[in-house]
Amino acid sequence: MRAITIPEPGGPEALVWAEVPDPQPAEGEVLIDVAASAVNRADLLQRQGFYDPPPGSSPYPGLECSGRISAVGPGVHGWAVGDEVCALLAGGGYAEKVAVPAGQVLPVPVGLDLVTAAALPEVTCTVWSNVFMIAHLRPGETLLVHGGASGIGTMAIQLAKAVGARVAVTAGGSEKLARCAELGADILIDYREQDFVQEIRKATDGTGADVILDIIGAKYLQRNVKALAISGRLAIIGLQGGVKAELNLAALMAKRAAITGAGLRARPLNEKAAIVAAVREHVWPLIANGQVRPIVDRTLPMAEAAEAHRVVDASVHVGKVVLTV
Fold it and tell me: d(Cα 152, Cα 158) in Å, to the nearest integer?
């Protein structure tokens, strides 16, 4: 088969579409003939040599895919050759075939085409696990989403609105904020021009956000705590603004707040399977009835993965960038 390889870490040009050995499904795995994958920032880090795949997983980038099952390994139940699926991966989505644990596989939602389904697994699993399973966002609460126009952000807006929460977003520029508003965002904050702490307090009569979903990390840590409501929950899922920061613990304690940090890629298989099962139960019906949909900015051939990485690097997209085989 062919896959996107990274002979040497570097810029987008480091991605090489090359012939590689076919994967084989182990016990508990299925083999998927990939129709499409999608670009995540973790892929950019892997390309640069900063984020190696977990031991034993595929060396190729790609944390999600869609396609058709072409083989079923021993001990797999509930899936058959020919099933149209999408899947959460530890790696290997940028390829023509990928082997994946059966617990990380999802059916293509009713009403969605196979290619578009590739934009779902990573964002739905990330948002549902962090915002709902860990931070326990409830109806009537306020969620602040940093990077509202990103793949994660566009999904977080829709899921929060679907459960009856109020949504605030930060994004860069009026065009991205307008797209967030179309998806249901109630409070629009241009981080280039406005202080999100002041804006969220103003919009909530001084209360603050009950839950913050943060992709920035260190750069925003102190301000995120200031922006939290009493008993607020800060869920950190990205480190685009650095990994080390000082925090006034008295301010955290005064808010009776909680800070969590979580990723998906390195989690044990049973934890990933539990998240995928929860997404199938709670999110898939919302997609089937049209309340929630994946936002795809553009679709490019897999062989043009370098261009897709340039787009995501430049943050000129809204939603997901999808790669097709």
Answer: 10
Distance CA 40, CA 150 (A): 10
Cα–Cα distance measured from residue 40 to residue 158, given in angstroms and rounded to the nearest whole number: 19
Mean pLDDT for the stretch of residues 107-113:
96
* Residue type present at position 252: L
CA–CA distance, 287 with 294 (Å, rounded to integer):
8
Residue pLDDT, tens place only, 61-75: 999 999 999 999 999
**Six-digit token string for 235:** 């869920």
d(CA 33, CA 70): 6
Query: Going along the chain, which residue ranges are E strands?
Result: 2-5, 16-19, 29-38, 64-72, 84-88, 97-101, 105-107, 142-146, 166-171, 187-190, 209-214, 228-236, 258-261, 296-301, 320-324
Distance, CA of 93 to CA of 43 (rounded, Å): 10
pLDDT in tens, 211-258: 999 999 999 999 999 999 999 999 999 999 999 999 999 999 999 999
